[in-house]
Design goal:
This protein is an alpha+beta fold. Helices cover 41% and strands 18% of the residues.
Length: 517
């Protein structure tokens, strides 16, 4: 039988030692401890426990000690002791590596957070630069002051780019170092790698502190905001007075994020605090725009595209842009699209609730190759099912929308009663346009004038979602029935579309409703 543990006696299974369990060799070649040999001697005879050979014996001491086994046992114990000493070292080794990895991972997370803030801050800087460019085009008398503010933003932007580059490089180094820590094998490599990691960590910590110290630059941000407000005030008050230089703003907690401090400087409205009433108050008369506080902030948010209406359903969230153009507030259709970063959200139902049945306005933006998008505004007849269906398809509240649908065909082109049909939200070729509402019958008026809007097939048709816009007056007193709206602006746009070489190239690139203020 093979002895798998030569360091122990095969009879008692105890390890050999230097006392009663010393290993001794029998003449047959097998080895046992002294104690087991003594116990096996009976009447001057010893039977080998392994091969059953008979040996004359009175005591174990008459058999020679197996010095080879004792030497082996000593060597084995030395190895075990060495291993026992090595285990704590390895545990410490692993602990050091884990601690270093945890530290680097934490720094990477901090690095990513600040990089995200810098990216958002840079986006805000870009928005402000764009606003300055627009204002510069509108008011030449303030160009030099506007350029000065832009120069500060450009310098700040350059600084952000430089710091972002340094941060990206540092993050890459930390990630590489994190991988290196998994490959070290010796204590020397551990020391070298940890030293290098400490050096990289120190650099990133310095970078993080520098970002917090440098950004945002109070003078740049505050000057930018004040110049924008001054120019807007000049435009709205019809005066060329440039306004005063802003006083420095005291920043609060230095540990707050970059964008929080930007909001501190600019007086921005925290998220989830914007209300529908804030939108209503945007056109309230004020003596000084720069003192309008919340009104100015709300208007600036809308102009920057950071106010959206949202609607949550079983398939997720849809959002609709809210824009301000020429003093009019517009609600665009709900779409499956990413909500802008740090956007202020309002519930779609609350925003639609601003609509007054007596003055409901909808719009269609038409565009085709070689033209710019142009708007058609339609006043809807209040309290009619076809008008309500038109609003649903302009806002996308139930899912379908007129956005990206084509105009389909022109009837009586060049003749009295000329009209154009569109609104096939289903198949976009004229075969669709199924009604959204079950019962569309109601009290409708009749009209034969250009600009009249009515439903294709009337309220009794299953495809009444398709709309028709008349571009020429009818003659002989003939009128269209079931009229639910009239074009109040942009009839020339519809006529230009009708005269386009291919009506199916004309697209409703956008749509929505006008929100009363």
């Amino acid at each position: 039988m093979m002895d798998n543990k030569p360091e122990e006696c095969s009879v008692c299974f105890n390890d050999y030692d230097d006392n009663q369990l010393r290993p001794r060799n029998l003449p047959c070649g097998h080895t046992f401890c002294s104690q087991c040999i003594d116990n096996a001697i009976k009447n001057g005879q010893l039977t080998c426990p392994s091969c059953r050979a008979e040996h004359a014996a009175t005591a174990a001491t008459q058999f020679p000690i197996s010095y080879a086994v004792e030497a082996f046992v000593r060597k084995l114990k030395n190895i075990q002791q060495t291993q026992e000493k090595t285990v704590p070292a390895k545990k410490k080794f692993r602990s050091m590596l884990q601690e270093q990895k945890s530290s680097i991972s934490s720094l990477i997370k901090s690095c990513e957070e600040v990089l995200s803030q810098l990216g958002e801050y840079r986006g805000q800087l870009g928005d402000w630069m764009t606003h300055h460019l627009q204002l510069q085009d509108r008011l030449y008398a303030l160009v030099e002051q506007n350029k000065s503010a832009m120069k500060l933003l450009e310098l700040e932007d350059t600084s952000v780019v430089d710091m972002t580059t340094q941060g990206e490089e540092g993050k890459t180094q930390l990630q590489a170092m994190l991988g290196n820590l998994d490959t070290v094998n010796t204590l020397q490599e551990v020391d070298t790698t940890i030293d290098t990691a400490d050096e990289c960590s120190t650099k990133i910590k310095d970078w993080l502190e520098k970002c917090q110290e440098l950004f945002p630059d109070v003078k740049t941000v505050h000057t930018s905001v004040k110049v924008q407000e001054t120019i807007r005030e000049a435009l709205e008050m019809m005066t060329t007075e440039t306004g005063a230089t802003a006083d420095p703003v005291h920043l609060g907690d230095s540990a707050s994020s970059i964008m929080n401090r930007v909001q501190e400087i600019t007086g921005q409205i925290p998220q989830k605090q914007l209300t529908v009433e804030d939108l209503r108050r945007m056109t309230e008369p004020i003596k000084r725009l720069v003192e309008a506080g919340r009104v100015v902030a709300v208007k600036r948010l809308v102009e920057a595209g950071r106010v959206v209406a949202v609607q949550d359903d079983q398939d997720g969230r849809r959002s609709a842009r809210i824009t301000l153009q020429d003093g009019q507030l517009y609600l665009h259709p709900l779409l499956r699209q990413p909500t802008p970063a740090h956007a202020h959200t309002l519930q779609e139902s609350e925003v639609v609730g601003m609509l007054e049945p007596s003055c409901t306005l909808a719009f269609l933006d038409l565009g085709w190759a070689g033209s710019t998008r142009r708007r058609v505004t339609i006043r809807l007849t209040p309290d009619t099912p076809l008008a309500r269906q038109f609003v649903l398809l302009c806002t996308g509240q139930w899912g379908p929308t007129y956005r990206n649908t084509k105009l389909l065909w022109v009837s009586a082109k060049g003749q009295p009663g000329e009209c154009v049909t569109g609104g096939d939200y289903e198949s976009n070729d004229g075969t669709g346009g199924w009604s959204l509402l079950l019962n569309l019958r109601g009290q409708y008026r009749r009209s034969g004038q250009a600009g009249t809007v009515w439903a294709w097939g009337g309220p009794g048709s299953p495809w009444s979602a398709k709309f028709v816009i008349t571009t020429r007056d009818r003659q002989g007193g003939i009128q269209w029935p079931d009229v639910f709206g009239d074009v109040v602006s942009g009839l020339d746009v519809v006529r230009a579309a009708v005269n386009h070489s291919d009506i199916r190239e004309v697209t409703v690139v956008d749509c929505g409703v006008v929100l009363p203020l």
